[in-house]
């Protein structure tokens, strides 16, 4: 059993908001987290899994059900299966507005939950549960194990590479054949599988819709729709470029990442550490892994970007708080890192007061007076020292 960092946030939000939504990809551990958190809760808890017909039948007259249980905490799992409940939840909350009435668990972002964010505005807070972070699994698992297998609990705990491959393949098939169509994605599963495989080849790189369009023989609009669905299902991330008025020609395309490193490796048929370190995906995989570890723990008031000019100035990650670049991050799969000229120019452009070079294991020394080298294990300590995690 892993202790999830989101637990304390959920507990705090239940004392403030009438509804708390915990969203994230399938199999990430939302149900386990909430059931563990509520095992000794201060009031009675009712749990309904909307994937099961028996629980759906209990909501044949949902207004009467909610009224009869208005003093209990009602957990609605897989809420995206019954989006018609959102207007009723709003009415129920307005009639009896107290903190901690509902927990909503879902596998889709608010954008895919059919206007839930508008319907429940001011009544719900949306929290995202990412795959397990390195901080949550250490010291039980090393960064190498976590990076290779990814952060889905069942995948990480698979006893051997064969079991891990079986689990990941089942996960991928279920998503492309069932989950994404249920969310409204009208695409052939084989096409989505092919798109995911192509995204592996540009993982951690710039997203070019036209290239994908030509490769898959689909329109740019269709590719954009598919990418949007994958992002709203928490499978991929588009990292926007940071724009600053410095009179330079900036790259405008987002970078694309498959969020879970284990999913990257499964799609690339990489199932052991030696294969990973010998793969052409090594650098891109490491960058994506570090990016995910950092972004998954950022507070809501910090926005991640990357930075690149057409003249070659670049930084892998820029963390912006209150409109100001606070920290830049360069990611190196090397324990003897150095800065490129483009990195130095980018730091000069942005004037970030704190700059990190994240490595697998090297840490604790200054590359220069404003650039510190740290390991993936200690990056959160350094970000906290920089004031980013407050």
From TrEMBL:
Keyword list, A-Z: ATP-binding, Nucleotide-binding
Pfam annotation, one family: DUF4143
GO molecular function: ATP binding
AAA+ ATPase domain location: 16-131
Protein name: ATP-binding protein
Keyword Signal: no
InterPro entries: AAA+_ATPase, AAA_14, DUF4143, P-loop_NTPase
């Amino acid at each position: 059993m892993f202790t999830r960092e989101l637990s304390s946030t959920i507990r705090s939000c239940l004392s403030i908001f009438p509804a708390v939504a915990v969203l994230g990809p399938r199999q990430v551990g939302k149900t386990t987290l909430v059931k563990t958190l509520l095992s000794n809760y201060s009031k009675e808890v009712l749990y309904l899994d909307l994937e099961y017909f028996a629980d759906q039948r209990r909501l044949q007259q949902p207004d009467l059900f909610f009224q009869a249980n208005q003093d209990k905490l009602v957990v609605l799992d897989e809420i995206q299966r019954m989006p018609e409940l959102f207007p009723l939840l709003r009415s129920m909350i307005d009639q009896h507005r107290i903190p901690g009435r509902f927990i909503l668990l879902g596998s889709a972002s608010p954008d895919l939950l059919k206007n839930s964010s508008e319907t429940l505005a001011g009544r719900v807070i949306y929290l995202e549960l990412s795959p397990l972070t390195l901080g949550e699994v250490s010291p039980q698992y090393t960064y190498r194990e976590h990076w290779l297998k990814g952060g889905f609990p069942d995948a990480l705990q698979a006893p051997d590479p064969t079991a891990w491959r079986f689990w990941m393949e089942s996960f991928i098939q279920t998503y492309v054949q069932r989950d994404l169509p249920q969310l409204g994605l009208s695409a052939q599963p084989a096409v989505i599988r092919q798109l995911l495989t192509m995204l592996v080849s540009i993982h951690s790189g710039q997203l070019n819709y036209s290239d994908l369009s030509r490769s898959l023989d689909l329109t740019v609009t269709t590719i954009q729709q598919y990418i949007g669905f994958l992002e709203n299902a928490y499978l991929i991330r588009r990292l926007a470029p940071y724009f600053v008025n410095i009179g330079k020609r900036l790259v405008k395309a987002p970078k694309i990442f498959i969020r879970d490193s284990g999913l990257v490796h499964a799609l690339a048929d990489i199932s052991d550490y030696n294969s990973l370190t010998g793969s052409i995906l090594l650098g891109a995989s490491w960058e994506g892994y570090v990016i995910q570890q950092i972004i998954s723990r950022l507070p809501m008031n910090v926005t991640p970007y990357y930075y690149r000019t057409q003249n070659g100035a670049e930084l892998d990650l820029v963390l912006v708080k209150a409109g100001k670049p606070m920290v830049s991050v360069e990611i190196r799969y090397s324990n003897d890192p150095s800065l490129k000229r483009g990195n130095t120019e980018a730091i000069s452009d942005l004037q970030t007061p704190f700059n990190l070079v994240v490595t697998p294991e090297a840490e604790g020394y200054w590359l220069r007076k404003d650039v510190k080298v740290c390991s993936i294990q200690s990056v959160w300590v350094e970000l906290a020292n920089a004031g980013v995690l407050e």
